[in-house]
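Journal club prep — side note

Before the paper discussion, L.F. wants everyone to see what a predicted structure for a comparable chain looks like in token form. Sequence:
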Amino acid sequence: MDLITVRSKTWAIIAAALIPAAVQAQDGKFVLKGRIGKLNAPAIVYFDRTEGDDRILDSAVLKNGEFSFKGTTTEPGLMMLALSKDGKRLENMGQGMDRKIMYLESATITVTSDSDMASARITGSKMNDGDLAYKKHLQPYEDQMAEINKIWGGATDEQRRDTTLTNALNAKFRKAIGDKTNLIRDFIKKNPNSPVTMFAMQELSVHNNMDLAELEPLFASLPESQRNSPAGKRMAGNMLKKKTIVIGAPAPDFTQNDLNGKPVSLSDFRGKYVFLDFWASWCGPCRAENPHVVAAYRKFKDRNFVVLSVSLDQPGRKDLWEEAIKKDGLQDFVHVSDLKYWNNAAVKLYGIRGVPANFLIDPQGKIVAKDLRGAALEEALTKQLP
């Protein structure tokens, strides 16, 4: 385990949380206004959200600390505000930026802070009030992750190479994830009417790998208003899809462009074993898995085996996708993407709720294995390939 292994696993959950998670239909206007101290130009606040298949970016220069955005939204969903005090364009509003991940809904929402965006307070929004209660409920998990990162950050290079430390931190991480999953379950059961309960259901589906034995009865226990909301219907659709995208079922065909803009279809590889791998340049755990996929490819590439890699990279960020391919040594794979982030058509087709996610497909186009991690990929290939 190295630094990316500990910290980036949290990034995957953040990434999954960025899937638009609406709770009730709200066709209407929003006003998002705020004040960050008394900052003035060149300080800029960047606005980043997804509405349907579109990524919407905007910015506002601060004047006496104040900024505002106006528009319409079809339903509540997660978005991001990021502050650049020096006015420089933010190339990637991700980890390490002064940012605030919050809900946007049809309301007048106010964001205020004395100095930075990350600690800003949000008022005027039922969704964000509910989210605050949800985050408070999950605080024990955050405390555990803070301890893990503190230990890792304070370790010497020699200690980081020692399996004693890495094994201990891996054990702590597994416990933290298990505790978080239990906390999410508890929140759903105790807060069936919360505006973020369906979001918690979606997050639980990521943590328990869409375990229908747990999810279906829990979903059925929620009020009809939750189940019939846009997010509830999406959740129901995802559970139904889980029943169809299973081992032994035909792998749904799709077509997306490769790096050169050439259309590539899954069915193009009929007659071969295909490792269909969903990942993204921004996904830390995906990047940590890549060495295992590369090793498996090198071992089995002459045995009728190909890797079809589908990226969830964001609109306008093809450069980051290409850079990650080069850095991780993935040039021998077949790479495709529509660069629509979580709105990637193949992601929707396969009901992907978190990345990395993968499927091993046989020459007849049937799924023979899924969610292979680490050594499990080589083990599956050894078993399947002649």
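L.F.'s comment for the group: The CA atoms of residues 188 and 201 lie 7 Å apart. Keep this in mind when we get to the figures.
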